[in-house]
Amino acid sequence: PSSAALPQNPATAAANLKDDKALADYYHRLGSTLASRQISLDIFICNQQHPSSFSSSSSSSSSSSSFSDFLDLGTLGKLTHMTAGRLHYYPEPLSSPIPSLLHSFFSSLHLALSSPLAQEAVLKVRTSIGLSLKQYFAPGVIHPSEELELAALDPNHSFIAELQHDGEKIKENSKVYIQLALLYTQSGLSLIHISE
User: Is 84 left (phi over 0), alpha (psi -120 to 50) or beta?
Assistant: First the structure.
């Protein structure tokens, strides 16, 4: 006998896929709305019981999963990513005897509440001829104008901007220029930070 799980009934699989897509679409719309209103979202998820104590069988015979039965951290992670927030997941209950768990939770919570924030941040990378921005690896919303918009930015955020060679010849021993401009609001003041 095989220990592999039996495949789902095609009708059940289609219903679950439809529910998952609807949930993903909802969170995408919610993330877009929050980001457009400059709201950053940090989510803290804590279990009330140890993960191994969850039963593998559901008490209901319903074919579709509900949010109470299933938590899609990947979908919630996209929500926090779009709003330049963070997702904190603690699989063990906070009442667990692991002392570092409670310390980690409160440290993350304190950092989220007390870090200095730059709000309504817009980041733009400019380059000299021969180079261009290929893509950002960063939280927030990337616009077609190659601007990265972040609802909030704290000292612990980081970004990667991948550059590409455009094919134009860069002369030997010539200089290449890269400029990073960050426009943001802090304590009610509009500020700009430029690094070259």
Answer: left
Token pair belonging to 127: 């380059």
| 178, HSE (Cβ side, Cα atoms, 13 Å) | 9
The half-sphere exposure of 98 on its side-chain side, counting CA atoms within 13 A, is 12
**Measured CA distances, 138 to 94, 99, 153 (Å):** 30, 32, 11
Contact by Cβ (8 Å): 73, 45: yes
Nearest to 84 by CA among 52, 115, 106, 62: 115
> pLDDT tens across 24-42, in order?
888 888 989 999 899 999 9
pLDDT digit string (tens) for 65-123?
444 445 678 888 888 999 999 999 888 877 777 778 888 889 999 988 998 888 999 99
Does the predicted TM-score (pTM) go above 0.85? no
Shortest CA distance to 123 belongs to which of 44, 42, 194? Answer: 194
The helix or strand, by DSSP H or E, that contains position 31, with its residue range, turns out to be: helix 10-36
